[in-house]
Amino acid sequence: MAAEGKVKTILVSQPAPPKDKSPYHEIQTKYKVKVDFRPFIHVEGLSASEFRKQRIHILEHTAVIFTSRHAVDHFFRLCEETRVVVPETMKYFCISEAVAYYMQNYMVYRKRKIFFGKQRFSDLVDVLKKHKQENFLLPCSDIYKESMPEAMEEAGLRFSVGIFYKTVASDLSDLADIKYDMLVFFSPSGISSLFKNFPKFKQNGTRIAAFGPSTAKAISDAGLRLDVPAPTTDSPSMSKAIEEYIKKANK
What we know:
This protein is of the alpha/beta class. It has two domains: 9-40 and 170-249, Rossmann fold; 44-167, Rossmann fold, CATH 3.40.50. Helices cover 32% and strands 22% of the residues. It has nine helices and eleven strands. The strands form two sheets. Strands 3-8-7-4-5-6 form a six-stranded mixed β-sheet, sandwiched between helices. Strands 2-1-9-10-11 form a five-stranded parallel β-sheet, sandwiched between helices. α1 packs parallel to α9 (238-249) and α7 (188-197) runs parallel beside α8. The longest helix has 13 residues, at 69-81. 31% of the residues are buried.
């Protein structure tokens, strides 16, 4: 049974975006609601000793796949900490052009062999297929999509998955006495963080919004009620789904 009452305060479990690019800023102004941002999870790099336990030898690979800026940062950090000198012949395959350009923080871009996809991993696999002779390394978080190695296996690629960093719950203890009308989640890790910080959390009248099927499943598995699902046919984005909900709830 859905909760009733107006939505006046919203907590989005992500870092605050720039105001000029944020649809949430428009919602805040248009509907006179308060929207706060707070990451429920953050990334921590593995130590050199933790990484070595995986017995992954970076130099046995001829190509590296980067699916995020975090992966870039922690790959080069661990190379430095484990004294691995990456040869100039190493090839890099990035999930997007933005991630590819981010690599300029670590190398002279034009002197390296760098390839990129269009944002989805399935697009990147099409690029990888053209380089089947390579032995790929996929640096990941401890929580990664199983569909990535599965897609690479189906494509007949040689690869290793390496954990270079981990996703951990942020400390939210300062929010203990603050109540929001709506909580917005984007990953199962966010739900885990909620209960790690507040084991006795009761939803009651709090509305919960979630993006993606895996997040929706985590909410259901936790015994919570999902009030605002996204994406849907009418609401392709989380912000659009929230706006549509507010329109009805705040009449």
